């Protein structure tokens, strides 16, 4: 975990951990998952921090003016998690809007807790705000909510102007996070968490951006950064060490016949001594695979007393 500014936490731990740490203002250690290394560089994180802090300031002004109630929106954390981890931390019901940020690819999620949205509706309709009932929005309330979210998205476009001009478009609204599928469960996403206050109502809101949406912008913006000779030497040394380490890393290689399809009862009834007929032509080479990816072909044989295989050209190459 790395503090990047007052009240802002940058972390790759699960969303809820990061949100709670940001709320407490903690700068203590956070769990690090070595199976999912951080992909965001320091420069990328700083760029996103500027974008979302700009959005938070302008959106807070919008809410105060629009709702005629003192409102605040403060950036708490920018986190790298999987999509499944993000969805699992959201309460249900909540208000989730599917957003496109043309010309950026992919689908962005904008989540505002139902309590904050109901309080905003109450203020817009002349009420005092405060604690509101937890229920789905009515047909009369939905257009008001969509209009407010579209105004907030316009401020998000203003924040992204420093990286890339965007044209946000609000799509469908959903109440149950489990019904929203922006990317695959294991895909990496960047989540910006905010503390949203509308009058006396305080909750946590969030914006979820798939890595495939935001990373091309961050990388292209960072391509013009010039490194000193010392930094270039460090980078070359690191590249060499990684290359040497990968070259010496052991991997499991398999030589395979064609797969055989069998019924469940045939597999259950197999006994020692039974013969399973292979449907691999005798003139067709075997495949050499790593993690089920074919990278070469071979014919079986032996070297002395040990089984071996001889790597041969691909079948279509022989035909040519």
Automatic annotation (TrEMBL):
The name under which this protein is listed is Flagellar motor switch protein FliM
> Which residue ranges does the record annotate as region Disordered?
1-34
Q: Which CDD domains match?
A: FliM
An example of a Pfam family matching this protein is FliM
Topology with respect to the bilayer:
Peripheral membrane protein
The superkingdom of the source organism is: Bacteria
| Annotated localization | Bacterial flagellum basal body; Cell membrane
Q: Which UniProt keywords apply?
A: Bacterial flagellum, Cell membrane, Cell projection, Chemotaxis, Cilium, Flagellar rotation, Flagellum, Membrane
Q: Which residues form the Flagellar motor switch protein FliN-like C-terminal domain?
A: 246-311
What family does the entry list? Belongs to the FliM family.
């Amino acid at each position: 975990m790395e503090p990047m500014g007052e009240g802002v936490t940058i972390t790759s731990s699960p969303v809820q951990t990061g949100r709670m740490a940001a709320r407490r203002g903690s700068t203590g250690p956070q769990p690090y998952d070595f199976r999912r290394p951080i992909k965001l560089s320091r420069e990328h994180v700083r760029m996103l921090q500027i974008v979302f802090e700009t959005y938070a300031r302008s959106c807070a002004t919008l809410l105060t003016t629009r709702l005629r109630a003192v409102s605040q929106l403060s950036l708490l954390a920018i986190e790298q998690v999987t999509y499944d981890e993000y969805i699992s931390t959201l309460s249900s019901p909540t208000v989730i809007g599917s957003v496109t940020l043309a010309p950026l690819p992919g689908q962005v999620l904008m989540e505002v807790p139902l309590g904050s949205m109901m309080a905003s509706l109450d203020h817009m309709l002349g009420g005092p705000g405060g604690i509101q009932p937890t229920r789905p929005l009515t047909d009369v309330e939905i257009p008001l909510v969509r209009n407010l979210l579209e105004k907030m998205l316009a401020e998000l476009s203003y924040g992204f102007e420093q990286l890339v001009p965007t044209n946000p478009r609000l799509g469908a609204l959903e109440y149950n996070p489990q019904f929203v599928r922006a990317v695959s469960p294991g895909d990496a996403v960047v989540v910006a968490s905010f503390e949203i206050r509308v009058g006396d109502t305080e909750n946590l809101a969030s914006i979820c951006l798939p890595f495939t949406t935001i990373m091309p912008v961050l990388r292209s913006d960072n391509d013009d950064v010039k490194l000193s000779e010392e930094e270039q030497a460090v980078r070359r040394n690191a590249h060499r060490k990684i290359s040497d380490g990968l070259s010496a890393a052991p991997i499991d290689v398999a030589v395979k016949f064609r797969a055989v399809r069998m019924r469940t009862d045939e597999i259950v009834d197999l006994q020692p001594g039974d013969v399973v007929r292979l449907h691999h032509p005798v003139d067709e080479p075997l495949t050499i695979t790593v993690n089920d990816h074919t990278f070469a072909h071979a014919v079986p044989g032996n070297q002395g007393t040990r089984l071996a295989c001889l790597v041969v050209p691909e079948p279509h190459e022989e035909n040519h």
